[in-house]
Amino acid sequence: MELTKLxxxxxxxxxxxxxxxxxxxxxxKIIEHERRLEAQNGRSPYKVVAIFxxxxxxNAVDIGIKFSIPVIVRDIDAFYKEKNRPKSDLxxxxxxxxETVRVLKPYKINMAxxxxxxxxxxxxxxxxxxxxxxxxxxxxIMDGEKRKYxxxxxxxxxxxxxxxxxxxxxxxxxxxxxNGKILMISSPLKVEIPSNFGNYDSGAKAILINxxxxxxxxxxxxxxxxxxxxxxxxxxADGRYSKDEQGKLYFDGKAIPNGLIxx
Length: 263
Known about the structure:
Number of domains: 1
CATH superfamily: Formyl transferase, N-terminal domain
Distance between the termini: 29 Å
Mean pLDDT: 95
Number of strands: 16
CATH topology: Rossmann fold
Strand content: 15-25%
CATH class: Alpha Beta
Helix content: 25-40%
CATH architecture: 3-Layer(aba) Sandwich
């Protein structure tokens, strides 16, 4: 059986575009990991060479100044307002993504890190760059033929469904949202529900469960997202991930049907 590198860069360092929409904390962690590798090993296999944001109110410019990285901002709300169309219209989203690809072209991007990028990517963006995303749920868990915990409320849904532990997942960006091939699964975070939760009425429970989800999401970021996203980029750029002729993934030559799992 012949394996090929998941992402094959013949020469040099993998040039990454960091895509973000809000605070950019995960992108900051990715850049810090890159700089740490440089300090420790004399090199990092990847380098964030450009930052792109679809939100004028994001922290993209501040992050760019802090790390001396070029920043491009194209406000997606303004784009849709000009077109007089709702943001749910993914047909004209392709126009937005085509322009995003064009403005990133001078930076010779090899890989896109969807680091808190809240807009759904369409074909022009997906097909132009090898994309990686992190999701705040364990994408191995299935509901019939479909992944059970996808979408914006995946972590809250996991808690409501009675999951005893939470994990974050890195995956390849593919056309169906949160359905790309799994790259890495984080260490588990134990779900903690107050012992008196059952004493509340339904309205109070709904409010409390949102608060519980927010608290767990922050803790999962610290042991999950912030750990596995930078490491995933490092391992891909270092050639440790590979695939066979059917597209099944391997890590250091060993099959990983459910991704590389950290315990």
